[in-house]
Amino acid sequence: MNPDIRRERENATFSTELLTNILDGDQEKTRRRREIVSLVCSDPDFEHEDLNFLSRSERYEAAVKKSAQMILKMREYGVSDPEEIYCYKSSVHRGRSEPLDLHLGMFLPTLLNQATPEQQERFLMPAWNLEIIGTYAQTEIGHGTHLRGLETTATYDPATQEFVLNSPTVTSIKWWPGGLGKTANHAVVLAQLHTQGKCRGLHAFIVPIRSTSSHKPLPGVEVGDIGPKFGFDEVDNGYLKFANVRVPRGNMLMKYAQVEPDGTYQKAPSDKLTYGTMVFIRSMIVGDSARALSKASTIAIRYSAVRHQSELRPGEAEPQILDYQTQQQKLFPLLATAYAFQFVGQYMTQTYHRITGDINQGDYTELPELHALAAGLKAFTTWAANAGIEECRMACGGHGYSRCSSLPDIYVNFTPSCTYEGENTVMMLQTARYLVKSYRQARDGQQLRGVVSYLNEADRRLRTQPVSAAPQLDADDLPGLVEAYKLRAASLVALAAKNLQAQLQKGKRQEDAWNSTAVDLVRASDAHCHYVVVKLFSSKLEEVQDSEVHSVLATLALLYALHGISQRSGDFLQAGLLSVSQLPRVSQKLKELLARVRPNAVALVDAFDYRDEMLNSVLGRYDGNVYENMFEWARKSPLNRTEVHESYYKYLKPLQAKL
Amino acid sequence: MNPDIRRERENATFSTELLTNILDGDQEKTRRRREIVSLVCSDPDFEHEDLNFLSRSERYEAAVKKSAQMILKMREYGVSDPEEIYCYKSSVHRGRSEPLDLHLGMFLPTLLNQATPEQQERFLMPAWNLEIIGTYAQTEIGHGTHLRGLETTATYDPATQEFVLNSPTVTSIKWWPGGLGKTANHAVVLAQLHTQGKCRGLHAFIVPIRSTSSHKPLPGVEVGDIGPKFGFDEVDNGYLKFANVRVPRGNMLMKYAQVEPDGTYQKAPSDKLTYGTMVFIRSMIVGDSARALSKASTIAIRYSAVRHQSELRPGEAEPQILDYQTQQQKLFPLLATAYAFQFVGQYMTQTYHRITGDINQGDYTELPELHALAAGLKAFTTWAANAGIEECRMACGGHGYSRCSSLPDIYVNFTPSCTYEGENTVMMLQTARYLVKSYRQARDGQQLRGVVSYLNEADRRLRTQPVSAAPQLDADDLPGLVEAYKLRAASLVALAAKNLQAQLQKGKRQEDAWNSTAVDLVRASDAHCHYVVVKLFSSKLEEVQDSEVHSVLATLALLYALHGISQRSGDFLQAGLLSVSQLPRVSQKLKELLARVRPNAVALVDAFDYRDEMLNSVLGRYDGNVYENMFEWARKSPLNRTEVHESYYKYLKPLQAKL
Fold first, then answer.
1. Whether this model's pTM surpasses 0.90
2. pLDDT single digits (tens) A596-611
3. Most A-contacting residue of B140, B145, B394, B617 (CB-CB within 10 A), to test interface
4. Helix (H/G/I), strand (E/B), else coil: A205
């Protein structure tokens, strides 16, 4: 092991193992996760060349091969618990998306949730046995987050008792579904249902798209891959165009809404039924943000511990770059953010499971709040992780730009989460809608509960407290900082609501007023989410028994909170929560916290417990032996397979003769 | 043409042609640029398949082919003026880097500047005729920006009158030089010169690395490609390892320093001689930032004009997404930034040329200031453009993630500029060093000149002006805002200098004190650069004659300045340049400016005048016909060349049989 990184580990003040258990949930969960990861990593059937050295077609092929193996092996080993499936799957694919993702994660669950018993009978076993490989075809070339705008039509023909699917415009071509391009032979297609001369809105249809024997596209179906993307090289995101494709009446998923043989339409009893899945997926994305950022921080911090550069003191050895304050300033707030998001992710999963119980009892009381929270936190965490991964990459200098660092891969595979499952700005505005509504309810005397209860006093507080009455914010007092975040959120929600009101009073229509205030509304949602994250991080500390682990996490929580205040100091000053004279103290305290995190930085990323195989990063190796392995990696890369590249003979040699 | 985008152009309030001339310099320059771009775009020898559909090896080969053609054609057409060469070259390679970049941009100029007449005789014509293809091998696996740390050795052996080159450690392997991996047969190698038992520091040597007849590596030379990167797929960045490679004494570049036959060392008369090139390259990078961001804004704004989504008013048609305030808030400040950086780039080029005249006369007076400015602005503009390109991509939703948008390519090919030619944080600290030095000079009574002259009063002003005396900053008054930026910079430079002083007074060593204040120092540099950008944008307005163009540029300048204030409001509040009660006015004004830019947004990006061939973006097409062309592009992509991918037969079909 590299002596620098060994010394870092020796100097840590806490047990990484205890912290790993906290991140996993408990000791047993850590054990089981490691067991599964081990099972995969030691399995020669999952070995293949570094994906960075393969063409896109080869990468897709490697992924199909692994997915096929994975299905067989999970059956063989009896891996069936959803959490364990997730763990096994992400070990196999190293956290990347894969061609069967939508089959497993959307097609099968949709059948389970929206198909009638008869339909389940017909489709479920074949799908389980991969005779039917499905995808979920929702977004179109012209519409993403705004579902009502989708244009694909399914028109019922009572004469033959069939639905006729069409893509009436270029913009109606289905676009982006994973696994659609080459892999799937069926799709759940979201289409506007037309029957008895009326449009009945979006419904889901099971549509065969490729022959189950030859795998060739069926008549009327034009289907293919949408071409190379920033990342997701293993996934065949596809397009799908229908020209009078007929499916039997029984292929509309009819558990809720129905079309009778004569074309009579029966609508679904409630539209909240698909609500839960959306909330669930967005909650899961919060966890994805945490994982992506924790991987990136692991790589950047380990590398910064073994990289020596420049000189601090003339004549002395070059310091580890982790000793530079500017490097700490880049990486440690991101490390703190990764921890914060891990805990927020845990909270979201727990809350979802808790509320699911209520929902199954028909109690939807808490759903709107969870829905608003999931939307906002999805946006808040993905944006922060997205920018943070790139900061980590750039903090590794030139070598971060090499594919051997894995940082480019982490970025390109994570960044779509800012867009999919609800475009982030749209998500922030959804949260804002809930906040403004809550604010108005509170103003009108209603007593709010849950996370927005702070709005009960927002209006009164803002009217009574002059700016000069800024409390002496204490940079060491985490509960006090949580309170400051809360009041900042209250102040910005109130401000957005008032600006909105002012637009309405000018006679603007509701929608125009909303659009003219959108910037303020997003800002309010952002402050709300920021408050929730700080609060959850702070609450998590209360659960931590071990005093050494508690101490290091408390430092991170304080760093996270103060860093946010220094980045948005204008907000805190504007809300009267901070005075100008306190700013130097905030800056000073931040620098102290960087120094305090420094000795534990490597141990803190070790606690994320990513095996080298999962990181796949030369810079982030556990043993710190970066340079020799970088050289090895380069030597194996495709352009070095021949001593002289053929372009020399084709273009350079002839040119030399000519000149 | 798409009717939305036609309407946008019809509604513009100014002549794009006039603005294009301003961006190019004058009407004649616009004409000549278009002529050259046309020459390249209509030349069938430069046609090839979309690079996104090629493997890395094919991309490298396509680039070599184009570079070879380019050399021939530039001779044929007599393109020899440096600006015209630049224009021709970037038209051929669409602004991308290419395998001969370092031959043309570093190897040849180094020969011209540092070789003796005898050496020029020997190397220049063969290099001009590409018998010698060179690269510039400076950075090593273990050292980048910190040049003194380089470890490659060149030891003089008087017995044979040769230098013996060695890579004594893994970290000393040359790493990253473009064209080194496969293309070059010679390298200018930077190595620590040892002669007569002493190390004499870094010197440059011409080292043959591959046979000029077979192109195979020469004995003792291990050379290859460093493997795939985030971008730069056309460039063979390489590694180079020496084991006792001998070159004749005459291969050390000896125009300045010399080694005599007996090994006696004569040092160079001045170390400022290589200073100029560095400043020049960093100044050029400011222009690169402007171009990259203007391309990205062009794509995002044109696409936002043709993309319709969601509903503002129930029952009405879906609006162009450019009508959403949140979309304007994302894109218009970036558009303003692209303009600001264009003008800063022009200024840097002009200043460099002006000062070069002085330098050639032996007058180095202005060089330190230009050096500090180039370092800081290189960092400031590349960071802003880097983040801005990604904002543009994400503002295009899912389709921005497709390679057909070209936004991923712009990003991955631009982002290394944050690292190369001086890592950005190191650059900011270099600028800070100059600022602190200037501040101390001013405090000690020296009268500063040039751009830092504002520091003459920084100290006095901060001591005399209490925070409560905040002037009533006027959101419409651009000169007033420039003044505010100036005072903010002064305040942050003073703050950093004082914090540094406080550390020294605690008894810390100079270097440790510097490191403990690094975060403040970077912040001060950032504020300084921000001030310079705002000031230069404002000054540029004075040159603009046409009142309509003036009006639209003035709006952009105001937007740029106010957006910066709102983003860093804490700084302005802290410096007493703004009061809390003014913040709502700043927000309100910003929203008004977004609305004012809106009708001219498409015309403003049209004025950047990128031909479709140069943008290579389906989303950014001039005619706005996005969707049909996206579909066409996808259909042509590699995975669609066969109806059924071979992995189906290899893995999926057998699996279906097993389950």
1. yes
2. 999 999 999 999 999 9
3. B394
4. strand
